[in-house]
Amino acid sequence: MGKKEKVKKVKIGKLAKREARYGYIFIAPWLIGAVLFLIKPLIESFQFSLADIRMTPFGRRITFVGYENYTQIWLEDKDFPFMLAAYFLETLMSVPIIVVFALIIAMLLNGKIKFKGTFRLIFFLPVIIVSGPVMLMLTGQGAATISSINIQAIYNTLAIYMPNYLASAIADVFGNMIMILWYSGVQILIFLSALQKIDSSLYEAAKIDGGSGWECFWKITLPLIKPMVLLNAVYTVIFISNNENNSIINIIQSAMFAGNKGYGYASAMAWMYSLAETLIIGIVALVMLTRKDAYDKQVRKFRKEMRKEQRAIKRARRKGMRYAARVNKKLNKALKAAEPAEANKQR
Amino acid sequence: MAYKGHNINPQKFNKSQIKIIIAIMPLILFMGLPIVFIINHAFKPMEELFAYPPKFFVSKPTLDNFDKLFKASRMAGIPMSRYVFNSILVITVVVVASLVLSTMAGFALSKLRFKGKNLFININQAALMFVAVAVMIPRYLTINFLGITNTYLAHILPWLATPVALFLIKQFIDQVPDSLIEAAYIDGAGDFKVYRKIIIPLIKPAIATAAILIFQQVWVDLSTSNYYVNDEGLKTLAFYMNTLANANTNVAGQGMAAAASLIMFIPNLIMFILLQNSIMNTMAHSGLK
């Protein structure tokens, strides 16, 4: 085989092509909106975060300053780094609380009880309140804290055992307990829908085999609603972070119109903030995703073994080929060396 | 799974239910708290609004706050009905259009195969993380570029691509079994038919949830009125209520703010009551699995 055979490019089939076309058709309207009002502004705000922007009577004046905004925030701003750290800890702590609380409530509401419909309604109701000015008013009135819990006492007790910033974060979580419960409306709903989709025959089978309710929860319910747990955790993080009551958002907003800071500075803050948010979501996802079920693990192990075997076979074959080639070469050489000699002899 | 339909309450009352009800009751009280508070707060007379410690229930309800609010609005140049009309128009278009966009995009991202799909998913997730405040000015630049400042479009367009709604809906469409869709394809349905006849009915609860989320986000939003629209007659009710409450930051303003927040809250409640049926019947009859 002297000539190299060109590998023909595999053409996309008609069906796949049609499907792809429909995919683009379906996504196009959203994409146009997203490009104009999400992606382009995001990119622009990143550019702005690297610049100093002043509004002058003659229009915007943008001077590129590199990462100066970022260093300024970390080195000179007296609030932002601390608030970011506090936000980080607090969110990390309240996400599990909200998700677990939502799951418990969803489990309770999924049982056979009277007035179930009414109960569900009431648990979802806070969702229509927690965003917006109403909530601001409520927190302003002190209605969102349990007055009987002494936050200071909790803080003092905790501060003995752990570093200061951690203790204050935990104390804050206790202080905002009612708020946290109010945030869990959508999560309860998502869990409920997931719980209702679980086939009841699974539970029956488990019961016949002698599984208790506790075991049923860990072996059937939890693995089946796991994707929803992740969804809920992510949703919770986003909800907490993009809430109007969040103090960091207020800081960013006020920095935007402050004379000495300006829009570039605020953009840099916002980018840092979303980075922290992404980090939290990454941590949450990591915690959720590392626990694979036993079956999944087995499959993975088996596949790995198979791949290993295949590689070994290939290697052996390659080795064999190389060996064969070497032998061939030697043989050829020997033959070539022998040929002239033989020819001479014959002459 | 049996079809449960609209009737989720069991007919019989059993003794074993009591313990669950006992567990839920205190939580129910907490959950109901804010609503009771808002309603009570709006009817409080002046001395009760500033009572310390703050009172939860109103003892001498009056309509004073509403009276003041309407009086203040009568003095303004533009009638309140104009703002109400603006708000209703904007919110209807935004909710309907963004739901259509989100479900279509969610269907494509979840069930169809095409190049760049993962990129779009990642973009949406990145946008999800980003705070709306930060993109305010770039959005203004875009709106300016499109030449739609001082039109209704300036209210509507920024909300159309809502990352949260798409995220929620896509996650629900992921749960729709592939075999159902394949069966439809085999029976000769096109993509649009699958979208209309299978996806939409099956994810109705998610759509209802997303509708409520979008609704309340847009309903209380001030930023579009604040930054993208100069014409007073084109601003929304939320903005108007806010200015009324803020313009009188004196003692009287507090009562007006309380009344305004109740007025702003009622459409939320109505929307919720309208949609709650489809929300509460979540996936009870979602076919397979």
Write the layout of secondary structure elements.
The complex is a heterodimer of chains A (about 350) and B (about 290).
Chain A: H1 14-49, E1 51-56, E2 59-64, H2 68-75, H3 80-110, H4 116-124, H5 127-130, H6 133-140, H7 151-161, H8 164-175, H9 177-182, H10 185-197, H11 200-208, H12 213-224, H13 226-241, H14 247-256, H15 262-289, H16 294-346
Antiparallel strand pairs in A: 1-2
Helix pairs in contact in A: 1-15, 3-8, 3-10, 3-13, 3-15, 7-8, 10-13, 13-15, 14-15
Chain B: H1 17-42, H2 46-49, H3 64-75, H4 80-111, H5 117-129, H6 136-146, H7 152-160, H8 163-175, H9 178-186, H10 191-202, H11 204-219, H12 223-228, H13 237-247, H14 251-280
The largest interface is: A-B, 89 and 98 residues
Q: Rounded to an integer, what's the Rg of chain A over CA atoms?
A: 32 Å
Give the class of chain B from helix and strand content and strand pairing: mainly alpha
What's the number of extended β-strand segments of chain B?
0
CATH architecture of the largest domain in chain B: Orthogonal Bundle
Strand order of the biggest β-sheet of chain A: 1-2
Give the name of the CATH superfamily of the largest domain in chain B: MetI-like
CATH class descriptor of the domain at 79-260 and 274-299 in chain A? Mainly Alpha
CATH level-3 fold name of the domain at 79-260 and 274-299 in chain A: MetI-like fold
Provide the CATH top-level class of the largest domain in chain B. Answer: Mainly Alpha
How large is the share of residues in beta strands of chain B? under 5%
Mean pLDDT of chain B: 78
Indicate the overall shape of chain A.
extended
Radius of gyration of chain B: 23 Å
The poorly predicted ranges of chain A are: none
Give the number of domains of chain B. 2
Based on the structure, what is the oligomeric state of the protein chains? Answer: heterodimer
